[in-house]
Amino acid sequence: MSAPTRRRRRLPFVVAALAVVVAAAVVLAVRPWQTVTNLPAQACWGVLTADDLRPLAGQSGGTMSAATTTTSLQPASQATDGGYHCVLSWQGGQAPANLGNGPTIALYTAAQLHQAQALDASRGAVQPLSFGGGTGTSGGTGSGTNTGLIAWQAAYGYTLDLAFPCTYHDPFSGQVTHGYARVSVDAAANPSGDSPAPPSDVRQADAGIVLKLAKAFAQQYPCGGVTLPAVAPSVPAYQTIS
Fold first, then answer.
1. Contact, 192 vs 140, CB < 8 A?
2. Which of 7, 28, 93, 209 yields a CA-CA distance of 20 to 30 A from 167?
3. SS3 of the chain: helix, strand, coil, percent, to 5
4. What does the alpha-carbon distance between residue 133 and residue 44 come to, in Å, rounded to a whole number?
């Protein structure tokens, strides 16, 4: 048998072997048994990115979407209750355990903010958080005026909150109020009851989310005289809440 004849007979086997190698490479690259998570490139008034939201999705396979209840963070677009809400939802597969309902922003008087903190404390453990050297002033004088940032994480339903001074027009009275803007995010499957502690990467992501939204709100609303830190602080272990 001549050499060319032998090469022609081996050719189909070589082609078949190459096809097997290519198919295996495609399988390894695609890995269809792995979950695929789709995240919005921009969300929550264009402030948050897919990287901000990825820890909330965890390993769940599906698609996260975000819709805001207002068109912007400016006063003219605020909801009838004076709030701003970015609703996070999930399609396909099982929803992530720590997705929560999405971040909210609301305006409070100093007294209302104190009542909100007291309510969280009455429901369960609350731990104050330090957001570094951020500062701000709500203006005015007297005991109702506060300066600086206030932040905490609450065990009930698990929420992480950041409040900063902001002067605003009260949507009910129409009067200028020296109060606070409160940015809040929950990360619990059941935000109205006791929930397991979210993992540290989720709580750290929550801190980054509230800080980015606080910066955007302070600039766009606007809330004058507010200085916020460049990055969110490390959130202490949930187990230290007592």
1. no
2. 209
3. 30, 25, 40
4. 26
**Is 0.90 topped by the overall pTM?**
no
95/208 same-domain check: yes
Tell me how many domains the chain contains. 2
Taking a C-beta distance cutoff of 8 angstroms, is the pair 212, 123 a contact? no
Range of the domain at 43: 37-240
**Residue indicated by tokens 């605003």:** 168
What is the biggest distance separating any 2 CA atoms in the chain, rounded to whole angstroms? 106
Instruction: Confirm if 83 and 104 have CB atoms less than 8 A apart.
Output: yes
pLDDT tens per residue, range 111-136: 999 999 999 888 878 889 988 655 55
On whether both 174 and 209 belong to a single domain, the answer is yes
Burial bucket for residue 55 (CB in 10 Å: 0-12, 13-18, 19+): buried
Taken in order 213, 215, 216, 222, is the CA torsion positive or negative?
positive
Closest CA to 221 of 179, 160, 184: 179
225 in the same domain as 165? yes
